[in-house]
Structure formats: C-alpha cells, structure tokens
Amino acid sequence: MSMETIATVFNALSQIMDSDLTRQWNRTTYLLKWVAAAGGIKAGTGKNAAFDVEFTGATAGTVAEGSDVAATEYNSDINEPAIFSWATYRTSFQISEQEIDAARTSVGTPEKLRDLFGSRIVSANAILAKSVEQDMLTGTGVDSGGNPTLIGVFGGALTASGGYGGLNPATYTEWASTLLGNGGVLRSLTVNLMNQADNAIFIAASLPWNLILTSAGVAAKYEQFFTAGTGNTGGVPMTRMNDNASDPTYGIGAQINEIGQMETLLWKGKRVQRNPLAPTGKMAFLNTEYIKMQFLPHLPTRNEIEFFDAMGLTGSAGDEPATRMTVPLPVRFVEIAKTGDSHKISARVTVAAAFIRRNAMAVVQDISES
Fold first, then answer.
1. pLDDT at 351 exceeding the cut of 90
2. At 104, which helix (H) or strand (E)?
C-alpha cells in the first residue's frame, strides 16, 4: 500500500479562507476630509445651493472742508448671489437572495464578506465618495452625457476669467482667482513660482491659504527642494523634516503616515498634500475655510427602514480601512421594485459645491514632473 499525501484528499477537504478581506481598491478621499474638517459640509435646501457674496462698491476719498456730500459719493458695496446646481451621483448593485444566504452560512469565509449586503454597502459608499472627490478636483460642471457635475479645483472653479456661480470676473474683478500658466509649455517647479501664487493671494485677499493640493509627481518635485544635491540648487534652506525632538531620526524625505501622506511636507508652515486623483503638472493653493459643500437630505420611508432592518443593516459602516475613505455625505440607499428572488439596490447622493472666496486661492499649472 502506497503512502497517502495531501494530494490524495485535497479535493475532499474544505477550503478555509483567511479571516480578513483585503480590498484592493483605492477610494481614499483627501480633499473632502479637509472640507469636512473645516465644517464646510452641511445639509442644503431647495432647488440649488446659493451663497451671498459681496464685492467692492463703496468709495472713500478726500473732500474740501465744509463741502456738501455730492451725489457721486453715495456708494455701497454690492451683494450678489452665487448659485450652484445640484449634481447627483449614483451607483447600483444587484444580489440574489441565494447569494446572500450562501455568504451568511459559508464557514471559513471572512466575516466582512459573510455580511455580503453590508460589504456591498461599504463599497457603494466608498465609490460614491471617490466620484465626488474626483469632480471636486477635475469636474467641469457637465459630464460627457450632459449630466450636471461639480466644478472642481482644476476644472474651472479657480480661474481668472469666465463665469462661475452665475457671476463673472469681467464684471466683478474680485471674483477672479489666480491662474499661473505657461502657455502649455512645461517648466520646472521653483520657489519663485510658488511665491508668485502666494503673493497674488496676499494682494487679492490677505487671507492665508492652508493647503497645497497637487499630484504625486509635483509633490515629489517639491520634496526635492530639501534634498541636497538633487534639485536644491536655488539655495533653499535645509530643514530636518522627520524630526522627533527627544529622539531625532535621520533619512531622506518626509515621513509617510497611515494614509500615504507626508504630514511633515510643508511650505511656509502649511501642508503640501498629494492626491492620486489630481491631474499631472498642477498645484493648487487652497483655503478650505472657503470651500463649501451642501447635500440634499433624505428622510427614509417606512418601507426603506423595514427593508434595511430585515437585511440586518444596523448603520455600521464596516471596517476602518474602508470607512476611512468616506466622508459625512449621507448616501440614500433604496431597493428598486423587486422582481424575482434578487435585490436591486441603488445608492445616490445629491450635492453642490462652491469655492466662495476665489481670490483667496490660486492654481499653478504647466509644471514638469520629469
């Protein structure tokens, strides 16, 4: 009788999976988290999102002693509404009742996957958040199908000309942002170029920007400013960026945190943050206090509440690595008219975004990443 090996009974043994479900997608939302942290996300109302803004209209000057007030002296600042349309983002999925039951009773399957419905909810939340984040960066106001989108940082929200929110810098010059381009010709990132953006913001608004948002490639070029012999030819002061006061450590580059950001990569004391969704060759100087987002709230119907209770969805968002990618935008989940033995679920969020102090922000483009 020959010796048995594992191959003899391999197919008869049950397949036991590791207890963890490792999601491969990247749906981290960096800019939305900054806006949320500044208190810029809240419920909206009505047919659109509207913000009152004020432009210079008042005048002042010297007059002769004892003179009457001339009719031309009666001037006041000008108040106008900036109006932004709602944009609806949606994702949907369909799962059969058998699939749900099989997942729940599957021994040796990761717990997060056994709750198949909950897992799909987490995924839907994350993909919606990523879609909103993408348009907060590059949205132009309309997609290829003619549907409304957000207008993003690099998609038209921060320009020196053209209408935005129903207002035009040609009429109100203070509504213009700063856009530093080079006619489509790439040039190296320099301290002087960054200073031009900073100075333009100071002159126009005298408000401090608090975040530089850029691509990974441009962030790497900026980091080289602080690495001797690899780009630091302009006399940039060297700093020990990855320093612990009591236990200093040395190395090249800034420390990376748990979400891949270099928290100690700073310029003039403010964060330089890379974003995987940012377009190449561009850098934005933002003041997140003046970036606003509103969502249309939804009151669940009794049928919706009963359905989610029956599915065992208690409101838990799932595991931390997945939920760190979501932001406080309430997503509406509804079961579409049920046919057969499958559940058709649609998730959507309706939002509007506004950059309400454009002259306190700037964009630098045509930056070489090579």
1. yes
2. helix 97-104
